Amino acid sequence: MIKVENVSFCYKNKKEKVLDGLNFSIQEGEIVALVGKNGSGKSTIGRLIAGITKLKVGTITIDGFDVSDRKNRGILQEKVGIVFQNPENQIIFNKIDDELSFSLKNLEKTEKERRILQALKQVEMLEHKDEDLYTLSLGQKQRIMIAEILAKNPKYIILDEPTTMIDSQGKEKIYEIIQNLKKQGYTVICITNLADEILLADRTYILADGKIVQEIPKEDLVEQAKIFQKFGIQEPTLLKILLALKSEGIQIELQNYSITELVDGLKRRMRK
Predict the structure, then answer these.
(1) In which residue ranges of the chain is CATH 3.40.50.300 found?
(2) What is the b/e burial string over 32-53, where b = at least 16 CB atoms within 10 angstroms of the residue's CB?
(3) Predicted confidence band at 35 (pLDDT cuts at 50, 70, 90)?
(4) Kind of pairing, strands 203-208 and 31-35?
(5) Whole-angstrom Cα distance, residue 125 to residue 230?
(6) Longest Cα–Cα distance in the chain
(7) CATH topology of domain 2-226
Protein backbone atom coordinates (compact mmCIF):
# COMPACT_ATOMS: atom_id res chain seq x y z
CA MET A 1 0.00 0.00 0.00
CA ILE A 2 1.16 3.53 -0.80
CA LYS A 3 0.13 6.30 1.60
CA VAL A 4 0.64 10.00 0.83
CA GLU A 5 0.05 12.15 3.90
CA ASN A 6 0.14 15.95 4.16
CA VAL A 7 2.61 16.23 1.29
CA SER A 8 3.52 19.70 0.06
CA PHE A 9 6.22 20.56 -2.44
CA CYS A 10 7.74 23.67 -3.95
CA TYR A 11 10.50 23.68 -6.55
CA LYS A 12 13.68 25.60 -5.79
CA ASN A 13 13.52 29.35 -6.46
CA LYS A 14 9.71 29.24 -6.86
CA LYS A 15 7.24 30.53 -4.28
CA GLU A 16 4.12 28.77 -5.48
CA LYS A 17 3.50 25.27 -4.16
CA VAL A 18 3.19 22.50 -6.75
CA LEU A 19 1.60 20.25 -4.12
CA ASP A 20 -0.27 21.58 -1.12
CA GLY A 21 -1.18 19.28 1.78
CA LEU A 22 -1.84 16.24 -0.41
CA ASN A 23 -3.49 13.14 1.09
CA PHE A 24 -4.44 9.92 -0.70
CA SER A 25 -3.69 6.21 -0.76
CA ILE A 26 -3.21 3.47 -3.34
CA GLN A 27 -4.19 -0.10 -2.57
CA GLU A 28 -2.29 -3.16 -3.74
CA GLY A 29 -3.40 -4.64 -7.07
CA GLU A 30 -5.34 -1.66 -8.39
CA ILE A 31 -4.88 0.73 -11.28
CA VAL A 32 -5.07 4.35 -10.16
CA ALA A 33 -5.16 7.31 -12.54
CA LEU A 34 -3.79 10.69 -11.45
CA VAL A 35 -5.20 13.31 -13.80
CA GLY A 36 -5.07 17.06 -14.05
CA LYS A 37 -4.08 19.94 -16.27
CA ASN A 38 -0.42 20.66 -16.93
CA GLY A 39 1.12 22.10 -13.78
CA SER A 40 -1.35 20.37 -11.45
CA GLY A 41 1.47 18.44 -9.78
CA LYS A 42 0.67 14.94 -10.99
CA SER A 43 4.15 14.17 -12.37
CA THR A 44 5.76 15.58 -9.24
CA ILE A 45 3.79 13.05 -7.17
CA GLY A 46 5.13 10.21 -9.32
CA ARG A 47 8.71 11.39 -8.90
CA LEU A 48 8.28 11.74 -5.13
CA ILE A 49 6.82 8.23 -4.78
CA ALA A 50 9.62 6.81 -6.92
CA GLY A 51 12.23 8.59 -4.81
CA ILE A 52 13.61 10.58 -7.75
CA THR A 53 12.62 13.91 -6.19
CA LYS A 54 13.38 14.47 -2.50
CA LEU A 55 10.39 14.81 -0.22
CA LYS A 56 10.69 17.66 2.29
CA VAL A 57 7.18 18.21 3.68
CA GLY A 58 4.82 15.40 4.63
CA THR A 59 5.15 11.63 4.54
CA ILE A 60 5.02 8.97 1.82
CA THR A 61 5.17 5.34 2.88
CA ILE A 62 5.31 2.28 0.65
CA ASP A 63 4.36 -0.92 2.46
CA GLY A 64 5.26 0.91 5.66
CA PHE A 65 8.70 2.07 4.44
CA ASP A 66 9.23 5.83 4.59
CA VAL A 67 10.60 7.15 1.27
CA SER A 68 12.43 9.92 3.13
CA ASP A 69 14.53 7.48 5.14
CA ARG A 70 17.80 6.85 3.29
CA LYS A 71 18.03 3.41 4.93
CA ASN A 72 14.99 2.33 2.90
CA ARG A 73 16.35 3.42 -0.47
CA GLY A 74 17.48 -0.04 -1.61
CA ILE A 75 14.23 -1.72 -0.59
CA LEU A 76 12.08 0.94 -2.24
CA GLN A 77 14.06 0.83 -5.49
CA GLU A 78 13.12 -2.84 -5.68
CA LYS A 79 9.46 -2.15 -4.92
CA VAL A 80 8.84 0.78 -7.29
CA GLY A 81 9.61 1.36 -10.97
CA ILE A 82 8.80 4.41 -13.09
CA VAL A 83 8.48 4.89 -16.87
CA PHE A 84 8.42 8.37 -18.42
CA GLN A 85 6.64 9.70 -21.49
CA ASN A 86 9.57 9.82 -23.91
CA PRO A 87 11.30 6.42 -24.19
CA GLU A 88 14.14 7.89 -26.23
CA ASN A 89 15.25 9.92 -23.20
CA GLN A 90 15.59 6.73 -21.15
CA ILE A 91 17.49 4.50 -23.59
CA ILE A 92 21.17 3.93 -22.81
CA PHE A 93 22.19 1.07 -25.13
CA ASN A 94 21.50 0.24 -28.77
CA LYS A 95 20.75 -3.45 -28.21
CA ILE A 96 17.55 -4.45 -26.41
CA ASP A 97 19.28 -7.25 -24.54
CA ASP A 98 22.00 -4.87 -23.32
CA GLU A 99 19.39 -2.32 -22.23
CA LEU A 100 17.49 -4.80 -20.09
CA SER A 101 20.66 -6.48 -18.78
CA PHE A 102 22.17 -3.25 -17.44
CA SER A 103 19.90 -2.90 -14.40
CA LEU A 104 20.22 -6.62 -13.64
CA LYS A 105 24.03 -6.76 -13.63
CA ASN A 106 24.17 -8.06 -10.05
CA LEU A 107 22.11 -11.15 -10.84
CA GLU A 108 23.41 -14.53 -11.92
CA LYS A 109 23.34 -15.09 -15.67
CA THR A 110 20.55 -17.68 -15.58
CA GLU A 111 18.26 -15.52 -13.42
CA LYS A 112 19.04 -12.44 -15.49
CA GLU A 113 18.12 -14.24 -18.72
CA ARG A 114 14.93 -15.61 -17.17
CA ARG A 115 13.79 -12.16 -16.08
CA ILE A 116 14.57 -10.58 -19.44
CA LEU A 117 12.64 -13.22 -21.36
CA GLN A 118 9.69 -12.99 -18.98
CA ALA A 119 9.59 -9.18 -19.17
CA LEU A 120 9.72 -9.18 -22.97
CA LYS A 121 6.88 -11.70 -23.06
CA GLN A 122 4.80 -9.46 -20.79
CA VAL A 123 5.05 -6.58 -23.27
CA GLU A 124 4.85 -8.84 -26.36
CA MET A 125 8.34 -7.93 -27.58
CA LEU A 126 10.15 -11.25 -27.19
CA GLU A 127 10.66 -11.68 -30.94
CA HIS A 128 12.63 -8.39 -30.97
CA LYS A 129 15.08 -9.46 -28.26
CA ASP A 130 18.19 -9.33 -30.47
CA GLU A 131 17.28 -6.19 -32.41
CA ASP A 132 18.63 -2.66 -32.18
CA LEU A 133 16.39 -0.22 -30.30
CA TYR A 134 16.78 2.48 -32.94
CA THR A 135 14.96 0.29 -35.50
CA LEU A 136 11.78 0.15 -33.37
CA SER A 137 8.78 2.45 -33.44
CA LEU A 138 8.24 4.87 -30.55
CA GLY A 139 5.48 2.64 -29.18
CA GLN A 140 7.73 -0.41 -29.30
CA LYS A 141 10.50 1.52 -27.55
CA GLN A 142 8.07 2.41 -24.78
CA ARG A 143 7.15 -1.25 -24.40
CA ILE A 144 10.86 -2.04 -24.00
CA MET A 145 11.10 0.63 -21.28
CA ILE A 146 8.19 -1.02 -19.47
CA ALA A 147 9.93 -4.39 -19.89
CA GLU A 148 13.09 -2.92 -18.37
CA ILE A 149 11.11 -1.99 -15.26
CA LEU A 150 9.31 -5.34 -15.15
CA ALA A 151 12.63 -7.20 -15.30
CA LYS A 152 13.49 -5.64 -11.93
CA ASN A 153 10.38 -7.37 -10.53
CA PRO A 154 8.76 -4.36 -8.81
CA LYS A 155 5.46 -4.39 -6.96
CA TYR A 156 4.39 -0.87 -7.95
CA ILE A 157 4.72 0.59 -11.46
CA ILE A 158 4.37 4.31 -12.16
CA LEU A 159 3.62 5.24 -15.77
CA ASP A 160 4.11 8.98 -16.25
CA GLU A 161 2.14 9.92 -19.39
CA PRO A 162 3.34 6.73 -21.11
CA THR A 163 1.37 7.17 -24.35
CA THR A 164 1.51 10.93 -24.90
CA MET A 165 4.01 10.65 -27.79
CA ILE A 166 2.69 7.41 -29.30
CA ASP A 167 0.28 6.82 -32.20
CA SER A 168 -3.19 5.31 -31.67
CA GLN A 169 -2.08 1.75 -32.45
CA GLY A 170 0.79 2.00 -30.00
CA LYS A 171 -1.54 3.46 -27.36
CA GLU A 172 -3.91 0.49 -27.61
CA LYS A 173 -1.03 -1.93 -27.09
CA ILE A 174 0.14 -0.06 -23.97
CA TYR A 175 -3.44 -0.06 -22.63
CA GLU A 176 -3.62 -3.81 -23.15
CA ILE A 177 -0.31 -4.23 -21.28
CA ILE A 178 -1.59 -2.13 -18.35
CA GLN A 179 -4.73 -4.27 -18.07
CA ASN A 180 -2.66 -7.46 -18.17
CA LEU A 181 -0.33 -6.13 -15.47
CA LYS A 182 -3.31 -5.68 -13.17
CA LYS A 183 -4.40 -9.26 -13.85
CA GLN A 184 -0.89 -10.38 -12.90
CA GLY A 185 -1.16 -8.61 -9.54
CA TYR A 186 0.85 -5.44 -10.16
CA THR A 187 -0.24 -2.08 -8.78
CA VAL A 188 -0.18 0.55 -11.55
CA ILE A 189 -0.23 4.32 -11.12
CA CYS A 190 -1.06 5.99 -14.41
CA ILE A 191 -0.23 9.71 -14.51
CA THR A 192 -2.07 11.16 -17.47
CA ASN A 193 -4.12 13.89 -19.08
CA LEU A 194 -5.45 11.58 -21.80
CA ALA A 195 -9.14 10.80 -21.45
CA ASP A 196 -9.03 7.16 -22.54
CA GLU A 197 -6.48 6.22 -19.89
CA ILE A 198 -8.97 7.19 -17.19
CA LEU A 199 -11.13 4.26 -18.33
CA LEU A 200 -8.38 1.79 -17.36
CA ALA A 201 -8.36 2.84 -13.72
CA ASP A 202 -10.16 1.35 -10.74
CA ARG A 203 -10.05 4.82 -9.19
CA THR A 204 -9.27 8.26 -10.58
CA TYR A 205 -7.90 11.16 -8.58
CA ILE A 206 -8.35 14.63 -10.09
CA LEU A 207 -5.69 17.18 -9.15
CA ALA A 208 -6.00 20.93 -9.27
CA ASP A 209 -3.83 23.58 -7.62
CA GLY A 210 -1.73 20.92 -5.92
CA LYS A 211 -4.65 19.21 -4.21
CA ILE A 212 -6.88 16.18 -4.76
CA VAL A 213 -10.20 17.77 -5.65
CA GLN A 214 -12.13 14.63 -6.57
CA GLU A 215 -11.86 10.86 -6.20
CA ILE A 216 -13.93 8.86 -8.70
CA PRO A 217 -14.33 5.08 -8.39
CA LYS A 218 -14.70 3.29 -11.73
CA GLU A 219 -18.32 2.41 -11.05
CA ASP A 220 -19.16 6.13 -10.67
CA LEU A 221 -17.50 7.33 -13.89
CA VAL A 222 -20.74 7.80 -15.83
CA GLU A 223 -22.51 9.63 -13.01
CA GLN A 224 -19.55 11.95 -12.45
CA ALA A 225 -18.38 12.30 -16.05
CA LYS A 226 -19.19 16.01 -16.28
CA ILE A 227 -16.79 16.85 -13.46
CA PHE A 228 -13.81 16.32 -15.77
CA GLN A 229 -14.85 19.38 -17.81
CA LYS A 230 -14.98 21.47 -14.65
CA PHE A 231 -11.26 20.92 -14.13
CA GLY A 232 -10.23 21.28 -17.75
CA ILE A 233 -9.82 17.55 -18.44
CA GLN A 234 -11.16 16.01 -21.61
CA GLU A 235 -14.14 13.74 -20.97
CA PRO A 236 -13.61 10.20 -22.30
CA THR A 237 -15.56 9.66 -25.52
CA LEU A 238 -17.01 6.40 -24.25
CA LEU A 239 -18.54 8.21 -21.27
CA LYS A 240 -20.14 10.75 -23.62
CA ILE A 241 -21.71 7.87 -25.56
CA LEU A 242 -23.00 6.21 -22.39
CA LEU A 243 -24.49 9.51 -21.19
CA ALA A 244 -26.17 10.07 -24.56
CA LEU A 245 -27.65 6.56 -24.47
CA LYS A 246 -28.80 7.09 -20.89
CA SER A 247 -30.62 10.28 -21.88
CA GLU A 248 -32.56 8.17 -24.41
CA GLY A 249 -33.45 5.64 -21.74
CA ILE A 250 -30.81 3.11 -22.77
CA GLN A 251 -28.81 1.98 -19.76
CA ILE A 252 -25.67 -0.05 -20.52
CA GLU A 253 -23.66 -1.29 -17.55
CA LEU A 254 -19.95 -1.78 -18.30
CA GLN A 255 -17.19 -3.34 -16.23
CA ASN A 256 -14.12 -2.58 -18.32
CA TYR A 257 -15.36 0.50 -20.19
CA SER A 258 -14.27 -0.66 -23.61
CA ILE A 259 -15.88 -0.07 -27.01
CA THR A 260 -16.08 -3.83 -27.55
CA GLU A 261 -17.98 -4.24 -24.30
CA LEU A 262 -20.35 -1.40 -25.28
CA VAL A 263 -21.06 -2.96 -28.68
CA ASP A 264 -21.75 -6.33 -27.05
CA GLY A 265 -24.14 -4.65 -24.61
CA LEU A 266 -26.04 -2.95 -27.44
CA LYS A 267 -26.27 -6.25 -29.32
CA ARG A 268 -27.77 -7.93 -26.28
CA ARG A 269 -30.41 -5.21 -25.98
CA MET A 270 -31.32 -5.53 -29.66
CA ARG A 271 -31.92 -9.26 -29.24
CA LYS A 272 -34.48 -8.70 -26.47
Answers:
(1) 2-226
(2) bbbbbeeebbbbbbbbbbbbeb
(3) very high
(4) parallel
(5) 40
(6) 64
(7) Rossmann fold (3.40.50)
